[in-house]
Each structure stands twice: as structure tokens, then as C-alpha cells.
Design goal:
three-stranded antiparallel β-sheet; alpha+beta
Amino acid sequence: MVPPFRALLTLDAEGYSRNPDAELPGLHTRIRDAVEFACERSGLRDEWQGARVRQSTGDGLFAVLPLDAMAALIYPFPDHLQHALAEYAPELRARGLSLRLRTAVHVGLVDDEDPITGGLSAATNDIHRLLDCEPLRAALRDSDPDVTFAAMIISTEVFEQFVRGGHTGLPPSRFVPARAQVKQFDRAAYLYVPVPSRRAHDDTPRPDALPGERSPSPVGGISVSHVSVTGSGTQNVIGAQVSGDIRQQRS
């Protein structure tokens, strides 16, 4: 018998194991709370509660849901997930903890009724490869950790049938094409970040700097009359004569 088409959802936490071991059970509970909140706000409470396949992956969750849930999983589910995680962030940050989630959504033939083999399928393997791909990891890694808390990747099948097909509240332009390459898996996919941001460059003042103190000159540099002179090797400045491989910048 051919299994039915199902919506597949999986999530995991960025850097989950970097948190203290004693905090991991509580963080997993927060993941469940955030997903339940997002499902409730997205009109998916019954689908989530009634899912026959809903598994903990330690640092995340995997679920097989009815195909009717797909449109809401694409939108507004990730936006509500972002909101829940942003609400948790101040309290977690005060305790030195972090919780940001990567999410993948796929569609495929999946048996979710067999008590032993339910949830096992090629589509299940594919969604976990999507979750592990570098573009999705980079979507969080390269964003501001105090602004962006959730990022989602969807398969080409989901994008073409549901997003481009006009069955969600998001236009195709909100998605960024990506290439998901993990082991032998190599597929086109699409990224969606509810609240995008960019990680700040490491050019902020040193926390121990005194008021008005400038950043130190580059290694090997010297300063004369508010002109910084740097370069490779040794630089000599005598009166108006300068020798050595130099670059100068007014301070």
C-alpha cells in the first residue's frame, strides 16, 4: 500500500551542547513550549497534538503532520516561533544560555500509522539533510544572536507547490534560493528568516577601554603628530624623513 503524503517538520537548536549539561532538559522543554506556542498561534494545535509521529531528537523535534498543515507551517508558524524565542531570550541570556532554532519543512510519502516503522521514509531522510545543510546553519551563524532566533529551510517541492502556488501568506520573493549539500544529498532549497539581521563586525570598543581612549595602533605601527604609520618590517621617522615600508593614516 502506498503511504499518504504528509507534511514533515523538524527543528534543532543552534549550539545546544555548548550549554551546561544541567540546563539541557530545561532548554528542551523550552523548545517544546516554543513549538506548541507557534502551533497554537498558527491554528495547528490539533494537528500537533494529534500527530502520530512526534519525536524528540535531544536538541530538537521531528514530527509528521497532515498535509493540510503545510501552508501554516510555512507561514505564520516560523514567525510565531521567532516571537516565542525572542520572549525567552532575556531570561535565558541572564543565565548565560542561548536558544535559537533551525527549522526544515518538507513533503513526501510517509507512513505515520505503523507503531514500529511509522515515520521511516526517504522523505524523512531528506528533511534531516535539509536541516543539517550549511546555508541554514549560516542563516543563524551570520545573524545577530539578539535579533534573529529562528530560520527555516523548505524543499523545492514545498516551495513550488505551496509558496509559488499561492497557498501561503508569503510571496516567493521572501525566500532565498539555497543549495543543500550534505553527504550524498544535493538539492535546491529555499530559506526564509522571519526577522533577518546581520552579525555585527568585531569593531566595537574594548570593554576595558577608558573614556576617549583610542584603539591601539596596529602591531609595528607608530604615531607622529596624529598620523599613524604602519607597514611591514621596521619604520623609521626622523623629522620629515620616513624610511621603511609604510602606510599612513591620520588619527
